[in-house]
Amino acid sequence: MSVSISHDAWKSGTHLDHHGLVGVLDIGSNSVRLVVFEGDGRMPIPLFNEKALCGLGTGLQETGHLSEQGVRSALENLERYFTIAKGMGVQEVSVLATAAVRDARNGDEFVSAIEERFGHRVMVLSGDEEARLSALGVISAFPQADGVVGDLGGGSLELVDVQNGQARRFETTPLGPLRLGELTRQNRDELTARIDTILRKVSWLDALEGRDLFAVGGAWRSLARAHMELTDYPLEVIHHYAIGADETVRFLEEIARMGRKELRALDAVSKRRVDKLPVTALVLKRTIELGKARQVVFSSFGLREGCLYDRLPQGEQARDPLVDSCMDIAYKSSRFSPHPEVLERWIAPFFEDVPASEQRLIRAACALSDFAWNEHPSYRGEHAFQRVLRLPVVGLNHADRVFLAYAILARYTGGIDEEGTQRVRKLLSLRRRDLALNVGLALRLALTLSGGATELLESALLERERDMVGERGFVISMHGHQGGLAGDVVTRRIAALSEALGQDIRIER
Q: What superkingdom does the record give (predicted)?
């Protein structure tokens, strides 16, 4: 299956047409997690997300059985999750079990107990199927992903070579921290040799050279949080957090040297993950070094999201996840029936030379341009800025998030220098900051001119003016009764945008 982003972004149906609730219950080697999503479209929205660290796979390497305490904890939490799902009216719950249940001698017994007690079928995934679904989760969030997905669970590390929207090669390795045990000064060399031996059996690991390693799984996300804390990174969003390979290796070596007391002092790391953090760091370090990765990119999407993405028709899979998500937000939060396609067409002459990668961000900004209308006017820009930075959307990197946030800030305030918005400034180049300002000012003009009823823009034609010498600014043609849209506030908005663009803008009536 090849994924290419559909550019028919405003096609009818971009907003949520799938109103039912669906759940995915993931029974892993270390944790049991329920996620309930609203809808099953291109970008289902998580409404409930909770995990319990049950430790089903604790001691599996030595005993061959699921932990008795882990089984008790899992069944107790499964009862909670099925009760919650029923109370929410969830239409369907997919129950997935992975490495520990798959490999344990008493795994079938545990599955039977779940099915008899709760009346839900449990799908025990093979190693290849687990890897495939994890890769599809990454592909759903990174449609142009090119690299290797590494999904570290408690009992295994799944590796998948992905390119052009396809999962090409799979490998399941017994490198989960519950199998490897704790890393100590005494066993470091032995454990490193063991990890290396297993990784070298992955015949295609050299395919990672010079490409991205997409890191999936709670243990590796904990490492990302720790890196953010230690470097005072300005944006606390794990998804699409990217670190160069050399810097990652240095950081992982630092983590491996830390004692338990130092690790527990890290606010970003769950106290229940502290003991396993050094060994998960070692697995990541050796994967990077042996595969010669270019950088590590952390993904919040994995197995559960891949399970939903796998069900979609190919046409739905090809849709742009960012634009679809922003359209869902627009339909739920705009003052009037949103017409972002009208906005996009109207401001397009200002941005004819902008590359395609940023055209889609402009499209997303058009969808979000009126979503904070009901905030208090004194705080509207600030709240919109912070909300865009933290939106649960994918299909954009951190610099793109900052771009969108600044564009929406400028749409509401007329600038991007507001107090409290400067911490993330370093994530965006000066050129892109200027473009974000221009996009925001263009949206500000369009929404002021139309009063938010954007269909009125179809009667106010915006064109680039040209003469024998070449381009010489822009003209907004408003004839007949549409000429009444002009006014003092519109004149001020035109002046601000004209100054930012460095080009004349005039109204013709």
A: Bacteria
**Residues with Cβ within 8 Å of residue 167, at least 6 apart in sequence:** 131, 132, 135, 136, 139, 149, 160, 161
Residue 393 to residue 325: CA distance in whole angstroms: 6
Instruction: Tell me what pLDDT residue 13 has.
Output: 42
What is d(CA 292, CA 429) in angstroms, rounded to the nearest whole number? 28
Residues 6+ away with beta carbon under 8 Å from 384: 371, 372, 375, 405, 408, 409, 411, 412
- Rounded distance, CA 279 to CA 56, Å? 18
Return d(Cα 142, Cα 146) in angstroms, integer.
9
User: Does 399 have pLDDT greater than 60?
Assistant: yes
Paired with 214 in beta bridges are 149, 297
What does pLDDT average to over the chain? 91
Q: Are strands 147-152 and 212-216 parallel, antiparallel or unpaired?
A: parallel
Query: Does residue 372 contact residue 409 with C-beta atoms inside 8 Å?
Result: no
272, 275, 278, 280 alpha-carbon torsion, rounded to 10°: -50
Residue 476 three-state SS: strand
Instruction: Provide the 3-class DSSP secondary structure of residue 5.
Output: coil
| Phi, psi of 212, deg, nearest 5 | -90, 140
User: Taking the CB of residue 76, how many other CB atoms lie within 10 A of it?
Assistant: 12
Q: How many residues are recorded in the chain?
A: 509
pLDDT band at 2 (very low <50, low <70, confident <90, very high): very low
78 and 51 Cβ atoms separated by less than 8 Å: no
Distance CA 195, CA 192 (A): 5
469 burial class (0-12, 13-18, 19+ CB within 10 angstroms)? exposed
Cα-Cα-Cα-Cα dihedral sign, residues 170, 172, 177, 182: negative
Give 359's contacts (C-beta < 8 A, 6+ positions apart): 351
Q: Structure tokens of 221? A: 């996300």
Tokens 């810097």 -> residue: 247
Contacts of 184 (CB under 8 A, 6+ apart): none
Is 277 in contact with 193 (CB distance < 8 Å)? no
Shortest CA distance to 227 belongs to which of 241, 239, 216, 246? 241
Q: Over the range 200-228, which residues count as b (16 or more CB within 10 Å of their CB) and which as e?
A: eebeebebbeebbbbbbbbbbbbbbbbbb
Cβ–Cβ under 8 Å, residues 236 and 327 = no
CA max distance for the chain: 85
pLDDT value at position 470? 64
Q: Which amino acid type is present at position 170?
A: F
Query: Which of 357, 355, 343 has its CA nearest to residue 442?
Result: 343
CB atoms within 10 A of CB 461: 15
Contact status, residue 473 vs residue 410, Cβ threshold 8 Å: no
Distance CA 18, CA 319 (A): 15
Find tokens 């940023």 and name the residue.
358
- SS3 readout for 88-116: HCCCEEEEEECHHHHHCCCHHHHHHHHHH
Q: What is the pLDDT of residue 19?
A: 56
Residues paired with 500 in a beta bridge: none
